[in-house]
User: Fold these one by one.
Assistant:
Number 1:
Amino acid sequence: MQGQNISQYVEDPDKMTLYVHIPFCVSKCAYCDFCSFVPSHGDIAKYLQALYHEIDVRALEYSHQQITSIYIGGGTPSTLHNNAIYELLQHIRSRFAVLYNGSVTIEANPNSLTRAKAKEYFDAGIRRISIGLQSHSNRLLHLLNRPHSYRDFVHAVQYADEAGFVDISADVLLGIPTQTMQDLRGTLDRLLDMPLTHISAYGLILEEGTPITNAINSGKLIPCSESLANKMYDYTVDRLHKSGFYRYEISNFCRSGYPSVHNLNYWNRGQYLGVGLGSHSFVNGVHWSNTLDFAKYIKNPQDCRENVEVETIETAKLETIMLALRTEAGLDIKKYDSTFGTSFLNEYRDTIKFLLNNNLITINNFRLTVNDFNISNAIIEHFVR
Amino acid sequence: MSDRQKHIRNFCIVAHIDHGKSTLADRLIEATGTISKRDITEQMLDSMDLERERGITIKLTPTRMHYVFDGEEYILNLIDTPGHVDFSYEVSRSLAACEGAILIVDASQGVEAQTLANVHLALDNRLEILPVINKIDLPSADPEKVKHEIEDVIGIPAMHAPCISAKEGININSVLDSIICEFPSPRGDEDAPLKCLVFDSYYDNFKGAICLVRVVDGSVRVGDKIKFMQTGSTFDVTEVGYFTPAPTPCDTLLAGEVGYIAASIKKISDAKVGDTITSAVTPASEPLPGYKQVQPVVFSGIFPVDGSKYGELKDALEKLKLNDSALVYQPENSTALGFGFRCGFLGLLHMEIIQERLEREFNLEIITTAPGVSYHVFLDSGEMVEVSNPSNLPNPSSIAYIQEPYVNMHIYTPPEYVGAIMELCQQRRGEDANVEYLDSQRVRLDYVMPLNEIIYDFFDSLKSRTKGYASLDYELSEYRTSKLVKLDILLKGEICDALSLIVHVDKAYERGKVIAEKLKEVIPRQMFEVPIQAAVGGKIIARETVKALRKDVLSKCYGGDITRKRKLLEKQKEGKKKMRTLGSVQVPSDAFISILKID
């Protein structure tokens, strides 16, 4: 996998970002279908051992790539014991060529981010922290089976701030069953009073098999109506915009100068290496994901790649367009043309004409942007061959 | 009469769909040892897949069988007949080729409308009729009751009718014996000038059009010069023979015999059903009676789902036309659907068969527009224009009046459904109702009704209102003046020509409303609001709106899971490939079909 499939369609084949997955949580949220679970005794130690091993192997495989950004996500990385994250980052730096001053982010849950851990993370070189709030309403947090209260969140932000973090992000969830406009207004009121640089706002997705979906299917919960969810979204976009948060991607808002560098790499179709259970990677023209099977990962962490897919020029083109059109910056047409040795405007002449005629996209200064993020999926679909 | 002809019996089988015609034909073939049991695939005579699947026979394959009765060998020619009203002309020609007809009646279901229609055709052709009661193995069978019904309703003796089960092979020989005893032998004049009735034809890639014929007088052999009396064209006979049911060449076909003639006929339209073949050297003075030019009565547009497949559609229609002289088509250009063809059919079943064959045999995905009829439009100038495509309707201000085709319709039903049927017929502009109680079980309703109302899901509605018990038959009667208007459907303000219809003025509002509602259901939400309007003469009579798409992308694009996202997108797109873009609105191909199925 290494070497022979050097991607022809990425801008910086010598660079990649690193994602580290920590799959543990103190409890499973009612809407979550991500790769996470509540660990049994000994799971954490075994997992970290396997993870270190995978890091060692990958570092040898991808010794030519410099790591420009690190993201420790989950699950809940902050559930790990004190010093675990510090040691993990030390280990990563000792194995990979990590860009000095590169962005390092960690996800944290309000209840597990203690004062000590916030300090530990800062000392480990982490400069960005993303805290999952979802809502300020304890009623909704309970409904979502979140393991924390709004108070916990207030403390977590305070600890992060005290530890020296400037770049603090919070997640907000829209369209929760029983959530009202008043609930949402309350959440945003509070967030905008805090020292945050970044807010992610996601619509609740009812994934099959999750407790919340089951409750809705069996009639125990009434889902949020589409019109209310739309109203919440419009309100959020408007409110954040007025408060100085700039929307640089469909679901992400930041104060000027504080976008998530790590995520921008995804939208720009840069290379990334994922380590840990269920993580995704794209390096040297190959996509893959690690197994979701914990036992399998523990046993053989370096050899559990699944869904291996070698990119083709067609998939590369579509991904480039699909990802770029999620961002405010849009698609850089000149870059597309030089990457693929073609003319974007010729290739998609009819599609572009149709979308322009219906006032759905704008082309300005060789950048194509969608006029309404709300329907970007439908617009992007037109570029699928 | 020659001794040879005394040992020939030409007969057909008349039955309602499902009453077991094909099965009995198979049994007769088997019992006479025409082909060994092993070679019989179910229902030997139905050659096309489509026919077998639907269990109905469309094309006819005549079969020659040998049977020994009383120590003498007889030749039995079975001419199969299609069982649907669309093909009644073909049926009538097949009947004209026979001396006798077996009438199969289901021992539990009794006489049905279609049976009656064909029995009347047989009687008109002065055929001897042999009733056969089938499916006596079924628990619900009541042969005695059915025999009485045959005598009461049809008026032919039935007490000695063979009671059989074609499926189980019970009493098949009694049918064969009755054929010999009851049916007259042919009485042709071998020495008279040649007269052959063409009762069917098909196209063979190597031999050209093959005529299926009944030799009435004279004889025909390879090398003879023959002439078609209607078209006047002449050919040299290259092969004659009969079917066993495989084509088997022979030297001569003589008066009274049934077989085929090949004569390097390039076009199927030169071998018209009902025409008379005679000798080009010593022609007969008069053709056989009963020739009729078959006219299409139902029209619809056929377009390829993928516009680039126009050429393939054209080739496919040409190929189908080779075997089906009743199919007519001409190129049509729709602003909504692009290039396609306006096709004419004998009826709705014929239309469905052609559609299915295009899809199945030629692997084409097609869009079919609402079926319509041919209108006679009289202009102020006194000129008459035939219009079968709503888009071609002249400007209303120049129209004096419009006439539409009416049919005489006969419905047979158990008495409990009379009310429901009358209600349906009145809704569909049925007039001059006549109700006749045939017996305690059976009622006949006669109506004069616009054909336009029948082709629009009338049959399905009739079946659903009568739990499938009613049966229907109709024949074209005349053109009558009606108040007709063109109903347009507008999507996002633009007329979608492929959805236009000609309807009675009293029906326009209701139809427009229902179509708009239906379209709202089937058109997916788009990137912009799509108003759906129904209009008559520029006046909007109904409106629905497909709301714009919103917020379909609030989902978290989780980190590196880009492949999954891309695949979702590709899947989504695949689902939309079957969409047609009308103006800027994406409409699924099924939309055109779905609006036809509204009750």
Note: The longest strand of chain B covers residues 399-413.
Number 2:
Amino acid sequence: MGLIPILVFLSLSILIGLLARGKWRSWAILVVSVLSLYWLQPAIPIRHLDFWLPTLSLGLTVLVWQMIGSKNAERNRREDGITFAMIGALVFALGLTRYLGKGTFLAPTRPPNPGSIAFALLLLASLSLLITKLREKGLSLANIGAGLVLVCFILLKSQPLAEAVSRGLRVLSGQSSDLASASELQWLGFSYIAFRLLHTLRDHALDRLPPLTLREYLCYVLFFPALPAGPIDRAERFQRDLHSPASLTAKVGLEGGTRIVVGVFKKFVLADSLAYFALNAANASRVCSTAWLWIMLYAYGFRLYLDFSGYTDVAIGSGLLMGLRLPENFHQPYLKPNIAAFWNSWHITLAQWFRAYFFNPLTRTLRTAKVKLPAAAIILIGQISTMALIGLWHGIAWNFLLWGLWHGLGLFLHNRWVDMQRSHPRWFPQRLMEGHPLQVLSVFFTFHFVLLGWIPFVIPDVGQGMRLFLRLFGA
Amino acid sequence: MAKHTPSDPSEAPSAGLFLRNVILKALLLLVILNLGFAKIDPLQELGQISLYNGLFPGRLRLPFGEDFEESYNISILQLDAMFASHKISAGSKPEDEFRVLLLGDSSVWGFLLGPDQTLSAAFNAKGYMTANDKRLRFYNLGYPTMSVLKDLLLLDFAQRYKPDLVLWFITLESLPAQKQLASPLVQYNLEPVQILINRFHLGLDPNDERFVHRTFWKQTLVGQRRQLADLLRLQLLGVMWAATGIDHDVPSSYEPPQVEISDDVTFQDFQPGELSTEDLAFDVLEAGNILMEEIPVVIINVPILLASGENNPIRYNSYYPRWAYDEYRDMLGVEAAERGWTYLDLWDAVPSQMFTDSAIHYSPKGVEQVVGRLRETILRVANQVP
């Protein structure tokens, strides 16, 4: 996301915060979010795919909403119908811009013809009706929804599969399949959309999800400031804010504005400057000395943090201007004294998501299993598998798996260390353990553990990453 | 976590006022900053601030690059910044140094060559000494655009670095008078170029419309944002220059220069027999010689590819039809003799297999050929300098 979209979002957020009251605020957020979905979508060489992918995000969100249903669906039927008709009309209107001159489409390239858009909308309406009927017959479709989202996720994140999909789509659109590439499937914000959908599907299955209207659900899943880079909010919290009688005040305006300015500075000044010499696969093999290699690795570590947390600041700031307080995603992660504390302050909402929907259920299952495993083994399995999955979320590839395992192992070792401290307090005098020098050393050690972990993250070739790792230590 | 509710009733109505104040103050600050920046016009001073030759080693050639992600280099048109990043700016000239500047186009800059493979690097590797025990140090001031006026501009700026000898590599393509103002480096540096044109009465229009004029708007912070960003980028890329020693991306393979060339007899807009002395910027070469006063300037006609294709009787290569190049060589020889220039014609000094992607770009072996041919002249001229 560049400076211009941020400026546009800032203006729209202020306008919504100042002018939109009550349900009009959620209507305004919904319209801007739907339009942003198309506006921010990167251009794709496969014909019309950059129109269909945002439409698919919308469609998938509507279908999942149908799957989770709502207890008071009857009461909201009229409003949901209006919402559905409105997003349908919006998508159709976006499609009609194909008849205006070049540069007037909100979508990145010329939209497909209205006939195919109408067909897609009809298909979505039919599927919605079918899901409603099936749900009314008592069928739980949450697992099917989760499976659908996961399949999309796997297709996107696995390079060979994404390439195969790209090839197939090129054949379908009558383009040369020789030019197919995995990088063509750039689906704006799908990773974050998927997490929100999975969270609601799971909470629905556990009967923890409050009733949500289609408008509320679409606002939550597609909330425009959080589309490109999160954070991953929780539906019930988002809904609470959406209903709060918020209006933009000077205090909140200052707080939101400051967050946006800080975020823009972090991203566009600091992170983009570090990008000139941050480590990457291309420059890693060209470096002459170990000292420079370390500098480039530091640059990468800080660039990643400043880039990501900068975007988060912009999202949180924009949310504040509209009266929605998105959850924090970073809290000085590089100043933490251990790896567990790091994961409580780095991409916080992702870590919380995995803790809630994978780690906790897994360890609970293992603890109550017939075959009794030692506590350490349960922790090891839980930490390693959770972190491996977080790694694979970034891409289904060996290097991301390695990165996940590195952190999983780190978390396990830290857990054992804490356990040892607790069981042998005499070996670890409190005064020594909480002393300033040891704390500084802990921060230093944790930071460098994380920093070295970025090597497999940034270098896709595992062999090259290993050689680089050894080079950093003079080998 | 603070809730987003108007806890203080007096707070809500002030939001619009607050927003208005923020916008007004921001606009006022923006105007003051821009006016102040335009008034002070600190770009030149900012260009002189450099991390090169301090935190990072100085670059061995002037900054030029089309893809900074691969070459860790960018094209920048501000002379102060260009020279501040160059090794020539590293401290004052040592007592035992005999300073030689190399001027020219991409063949001197070293297109498709690493910084340690260029002409200046190859000369430095020879370790030449003068008779009075001064070490000859060669500085690459080549820049990849074809214009001898651009060379004169660089030479004028480089005078402050106290050269002892200038090697000025030229070719016909960089001499047509109509091409002199086409170089972006010339167009951007309006004032020093105008001074040179007026001082030496060059046959060029000092008010040519291609010059980039610095209007008040262009001097503001907003107007200069690109130049400022480039200054910053040049410094940031210093890390990668220091870390890798790379300032130019040399691909593992490239298209060799055409051997089979067209039978077109025209040279630029000239038909056979139309090229005259007035069409070529010999006055710029003369200006360079006058500018350097007692400091010797050696003018070298650079080697070109002699393509062996079917149309060899018509053209030497894709740049030059035979008639134009032969006439140019004749004219240059006559001009050099009449004006008393030290002149060397190396037009056929490099065999065709020692060219890389064009008729004037040499491989490292080609560079060695040129160095070998120049050794005697350089040492002779250097030893004549008191």
Note: Residues 335-472 of chain A form one domain.
